Amino acid sequence: MQRAILMVAQMEGLMLFRLDNNKRREEFLAVRASVRKALLMLATAP
């Protein structure tokens, strides 16, 4: 339950930094990779 709460909180927080994936493609890809890494770490941590 704590992991789920952290994941949702992180996704909601990132909505503030929503990037235009056409104009700022490099930043968008970097943020997406960072989010994926953090969420995978949360989901698979023992």
The helix-strand sequence is HH
Question: What level of helicity do the residues show?
Answer: over 70%
- Helix vs. strand class: mainly alpha
Shape: elongated
Strand segment tally: 0
Tell me about this structure:
With 46 residues, this protein is mainly α. It is built from 2 helices and no strands. The longest helix is centred in the last third of the chain and has 20 residues, at 25-44. The radius of gyration is 12 Å and the shape is elongated. The relative contact order is 0.18.
Search tags:
46 residues; 2 helices; 72% helix; mainly alpha; single chain
Q: How does the SSE layout of this entry go?
A:
Layout: H1 2-14, H2 25-44
Helix pairs in contact: 1-2
In short:
The protein is mostly helical. The chain is 72% helix and 0% strand.
